[in-house]
């Protein structure tokens, strides 16, 4: 297997211009496709996940162009009526493509098959399918009940109310909120049980508003979508930087910024609509110095030199939470991350993978159903071979081990899911 050997990095400093947000890129592409008219999407993320969404739109007959070799794309919306009524879509391991497209296509009146990589076929989708069936959609499982691949047939959409479980993935609710305006009817979505990953719903609502769809949020348990609304192009929309991708550089700054020289990320800041900007608050709790502008965040190490352990509920930032688990190796004391059961159904079982790999560098780890407890070793074990489980975030967060010891990252190319140039950017802040 390919690998990348990272030599120990003693200090980091400098500025990283973040690539576009995955969550905003894929939502924006789909909403632009659902509009009538053109949308200019600026700063789209270049990655596997966004490529899968662009390919899916092509297969559905949605026209789009890339402007030169920029990351600006013009999307020609189809007003919710996809020109191609029968298509097979391969969506890789992109949850932000698979879940919202399932919802939109289930209401679109065509014959569609949706599949992904083997791991995507182990990631649940039953709660979304159940909700869509309540609205009259016809969705069949082609493999295991409750999981992709799926076959979608034209249904007879009826009713004014669906309910969806909130405790496995917020992407099911996101898919419903993005797609149900297609029905043209008044629709109420009720969330059963506790909704996880809430800030991602705020991204969804924010972008829907930009595309002319108003949704009334009633707490976190009910959403009312007035009928008769049309997706309307904002004309131009700018994709802000990816706040989850920011976490690795900010953590690096908090662990090993050169004296007087912070690590700065640009593209996200006080104005960001992504919940993962709140990752910086956890670094602050750990003692790091964080500064924020409208479009940048900086991190420097604690004045005392060493981070301190935290005991935190990270349900609101499940992706960036992984970075805290590795940053815990550099903190004084035992760090506990709670309420992160959704880790088990992401690119890999992240609770199990994280525990296994943290132990390789010498940490003492307790893995619970929905939590992980990390106690760092006195000294990191050098030259650990870190398995990445085809999970971009495992590769990116374990690169931080190099701030304390040499480390080997297996299959570093897996960062392509959201950040193909990650290791080049990391090298640029190494001093
Ligand atoms: O809606 C989104 O853009 C996302 C929601 C989160 O998933 P869950 O809601 O499954 O936690 C997150 O982990 C994922 O990377 C992106
Ligand atoms: C969980 C993730 O991705 P997805 O959008 O495929 O759910 C992730 O990027 O960490």
From TrEMBL:
The active site is at residue 319. Phosphoenolpyruvate binds at residues 22, 95, 123, 171, 350, 393, 417. It catalyses: 3-phosphoshikimate + phosphoenolpyruvate = 5-O-(1-carboxyvinyl)-3-phosphoshikimate + phosphate. Residues 8-426 form the Enolpyruvate transferase domain. Pathway: Metabolic intermediate biosynthesis; chorismate biosynthesis; chorismate from D-erythrose 4-phosphate and phosphoenolpyruvate: step 6/7. It comes from the Bacteria. HAMAP family: EPSP_synth (MF_00210). Belongs to the EPSP synthase family. This is 3-phosphoshikimate 1-carboxyvinyltransferase. It comes from Chitiniphilus eburneus. The gene is aroA.
């Amino acid at each position: 297997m390919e690998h990348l050997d990272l030599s120990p990095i003693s200090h980091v400093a400098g500025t990283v211009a973040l690539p576009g947000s995955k969550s905003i890129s894929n939502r924006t592409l789909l909403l632009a496709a659902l509009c009538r008219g053109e949308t200019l999407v600026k700063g789209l993320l270049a990655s596997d996940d966004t490529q899968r969404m662009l390919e899916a739109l092509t297969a559905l007959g949605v026209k789009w162009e890339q402007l030169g070799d920029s990351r600006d794309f013009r999307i020609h919306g189809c007003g919710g009526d996809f020109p191609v009524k029968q298509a097979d879509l391969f969506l890789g391991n992109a949850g932000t493509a698979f879940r919202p497209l399932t919802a939109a296509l289930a209401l679109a009146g065509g014959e569609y098959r949706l599949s992904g990589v083997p791991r995507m076929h182990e990631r649940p989708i039953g709660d979304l399918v159940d909700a869509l069936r309540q609205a009259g959609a016809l969705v069949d499982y082609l493999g295991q009940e409750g999981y992709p691949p799926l076959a979608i047939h034209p249904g007879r959409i009826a009713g004014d109310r669906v309910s969806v479980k909130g405790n496995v993935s917020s992407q099911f609710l996101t898919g419903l909120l993005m797609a149900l305006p297609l029905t043209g009817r008044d629709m109420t979505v009720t969330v059963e049980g506790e909704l996880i990953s809430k800030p991602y719903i705020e991204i969804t609502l924010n972008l829907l508003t930009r595309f002319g769809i108003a949704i009334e949020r009633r707490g976190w348990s009910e959403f009312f979508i007035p009928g008769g609304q049309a997706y309307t192009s904002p004309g131009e929309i700018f994709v802000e930087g990816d706040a989850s991708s920011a976490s690795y550089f900010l953590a690096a700054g908090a662990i090993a910024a050169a004296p007087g020289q912070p690590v700065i990320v640009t593209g996200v800041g006080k104005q960001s609509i992504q919940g993962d900007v709140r990752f910086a608050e956890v670094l602050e709790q750990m003692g790091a110095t964080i500064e924020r502008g409208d479009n940048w965040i900086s991190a420097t190490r604690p004045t005392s030199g060493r981070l301190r352990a935290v005991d935190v509920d990270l349900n609101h930032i499940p992706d960036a939470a992984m970075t805290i688990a590795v940053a815990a190796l550099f903190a004084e004391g035992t760090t506990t991350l709670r309420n992160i059961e959704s880790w088990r159904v992401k690119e890999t079982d992240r609770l199990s993978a994280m525990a296994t790999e943290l132990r390789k560098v010498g940490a003492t780890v307790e893995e619970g159903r929905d939590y992980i407890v990390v106690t760092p070793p006195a000294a990191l074990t050098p030259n650990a071979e870190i398995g990445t489980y085809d999970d971009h975030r495992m590769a990116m967060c374990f690169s931080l081990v190099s701030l304390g010891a040499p480390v080997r990252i297996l299959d570093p190319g897996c960062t392509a899911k959201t950040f193909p140039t990650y290791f080049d950017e990391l090298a640029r802040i190494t001093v």
